[in-house]
Amino acid sequence: MSDHLIQFYEDDNFPVTGLVDYIGAALASGDKGIVIATAKHLRQLEERLTARGLLGDASRGRYIALDAELMPPLFMADGMPDEARFHHAIGAVIQSAAASHGGHLYVFGEMVAILCGAARCPLRLDKHDAALRVERYFNDLLRRHSFTLLCGYPLSAFPRQEDGPMFGEICALHTEVRPAEGYDPAASIASLQRTIAVLQQQAYSLASEVHDRMRIEQAPREVNFDRLTGLPNRSVFHDRLEMDIKKAHRSRLPLALLFIDLDHFKEINDTLGHDTGDQLLQQVGQRLSAYVRETDTVARIGGDEFTITLGELQNLNTVTHVAQKILGDLTGPFQLGNKVAYISASIGITLYPQDAASAGELLRNADQAMYWSKDIGRNRFTYFTRSMQEAAQARMALSNDLRGAASQGQLRVYYQPIVDMRSGRICKAEALIRWLHPAHGMISPVEFIPIAEHTGLIVAIGDWVFHEALRQATQWRAFEPHFTVAVNISPVQFYRNNGDAHRDWIEHCRGSQTQAAPAPAVGLEITEGLLLTANASVMQQMQAFRDAGIGISLDDFGTGYSSLSYLRKFNLDSLKIDRSFVDNLEHDNANVALCEAIIVMAHKLGLKVIAEGIETRAQHALLREAGCDFAQGYLFGPALPPDDFEALLKAAAADAALSASNWSATNPSTGRGHTS
């Protein structure tokens, strides 16, 4: 709940009398309160709260008082409100209070005191303009933190008729405008000014009512048409598709349904902003409408998904022609204000009556064909086939089975060794999940991980893998004190759990740390896709891992949207050279050069390098000579069940100890401690 309320008052005693009820109710219910007011009003408020028994040890930390007369110098710069300083001075207090203790946070700001209370910090702009700025700063805080804000204004702050527009602008920045409270004739100094101010508030309320009535009148159109693009919405699309099916049945002419999904649209939103994304959707709707007849329907059914129905087709080749034109047109540049964007589209096509007899079946078929287009490379169209339906049904069955796989003990964690290039010792392992299905046997992660990510099951599965890997890694440190296990983490895990599970991971990692091995026993592997879409929440979670000493490795480096800026922006520990660069390395000088360049670049940035997919001694020798730090692949062993991996680790540790002992015996003058 993040509400922004504005309370007007006529009685100058309101900042105390009204606040006693507002803050008192919060404290009485176990919530928290911050008051920004003059020192005089704070003293009066605290006296009354104490009299009610609401201030004391029980409320310690839940009531915060800020002297408004001392605040302007903290967030003003050269007589102007400064947003960065405001967030530092007031935002930090709100952030800390919102995150601590339990209950909701209620904040009151005495606006006139905030802006005009400090004579030593005069304003260089009109106080109303200053108020607008501060209200916008508060709105930004409301988007970041959960709290309810009540801003108090005396009506005498808007005494003139020309204050009306400014009055309206301030009201518009709030989610609720409360009426004037506490009129006291004896306290009235300028009744005429107050009357004008009351009328202005009533005018604003009337304008709001007129606006609401206009929205009610507009509602029937909004029920049927997408507000952003003006195209028919999902409801109208279904109705028209039903009618088109009936017409196609009567005319015995086929009907085509095209399901269009924009490729990489999320990246446009993330990089250029949602307003720019909305402009793009509007232009896409306009381009799609240019390829159909008046009797056809273009609809936006949600997000970046569009549909087109082509009815009474004399020639089915028309469908292919339209799909090709759409693909070609959508790959052209989109001018979005002063920015240019490029996208593509994936299209699924199904036909009536060839593929299905109902609207629901047609939509499902077109959707399946569209996903097939995405799976095979995007920026293409695909006609529905029965095999797609069978594959979709198989995926659904697999998804249903996956929901009970963990609780039924079907999931396993295997461990593939990672060796130190110089010493040859097994110092790390990668945790790899396996699914032993009771009917289908071992199912490849390539099949079930995408399903787990799509359904959100990856969050629970990933949490189980992490704790299992941490338990094993802690146990194996008895043989290799600095041993760590790398756990793959999906981007979905960062977005679906809001960091709750990750905070639990950090707490459990602390238990694996010892004085001899201060680093946690588990590290993380992420993909370049996460770096591309990382928002503030993802950045905070990654920083929390880094602060806890948990190493982060970038997997499959070089195969995605690799960018040096990401390596600098994100505090990584290592990167893994993808196996596609290692394969055939001894016969491909270009791949050797690429691997050498990656290794040099990583070392310059302070990153370690792991090469995966090493299968031959020649590949190992070339990478070792190039300065690679760690190696992984079948040359050193496949992914093994825990017991088998433990036996391998024990044997490797015993061999290393024996070699060290023999070396020490033949070199007695070197002394002790040189055992590696």
Q: What are the salient characteristics of this protein?
A:
six-stranded parallel sheet; 20% strand; eight-stranded mixed β-barrel; alpha/beta; disordered C terminus; 676 residues; 24 strands
Quick summary:
This protein is of the alpha/beta class. The protein has 25 helices and 24 strands. The strands form 5 sheets. It has an 8-stranded mixed beta barrel with strand order 16-17-19-20-21-22-23-24, surrounded by 4 helices.
Describe this structure in words.
The protein has 676 residues and is of the alpha/beta class. 49% of the residues lie in helices and 20% in strands. It has 25 helices and 24 strands. An 8-stranded mixed barrel has the order 16-17-19-20-21-22-23-24, surrounded by 4 helices. A 6-stranded parallel beta sheet has the order 3-2-6-7-1-8, with helices on both faces. The chain has a 5-stranded mixed beta sheet with strand order 10-11-9-14-15, sandwiched between helices. Helix 4 (83-99) packs across helix 6, helix 14 (386-403) packs across helix 15 and helix 16 runs parallel beside helix 18 (500-510). It is globular. The two termini are 59 Å apart.
Largest sheet: 8 strands, mixed, barrel
Structural class: alpha/beta
What is the share of helical residues?
40-55%
SS strand fraction? 15-25%
Radius of gyration: 33 Å
First-last Cα distance:
59 Å
Number of helices: 25
Low-confidence stretches: 183-187, 669-676
Q: What is the overall pLDDT average?
A: 83
Q: How are the strands of the largest sheet arranged?
A: 16-17-19-20-21-22-23-24
Report the strand count. Answer: 24
Which outline best applies? Answer: globular
